[in-house]
Amino acid sequence: MDFDISRLLGDWEYQPGQVVVRRFTGRDGRDKIQLRVDLGLLQMNADGRPDGKRPYGKVSLLEHYKARLAKHRQTHGQSEEGFKLGPEDCAKLQLEALQYHHRYICLLQLEDYASVIRDAERNLAVFEFVSKYAQAEEMVWALRQFQPQLLMVLTRARGAQALDAENYPLAIQHAEQGLEKIRAFFGEVGNTEGAEQSGEVQSLENWLDELRAKRPLTQRERLERALQEAVQREDYERAARVRDALRKLEPSE
Question: Residue range 102-122: average pLDDT?
Answer without folding.
Answer: 97
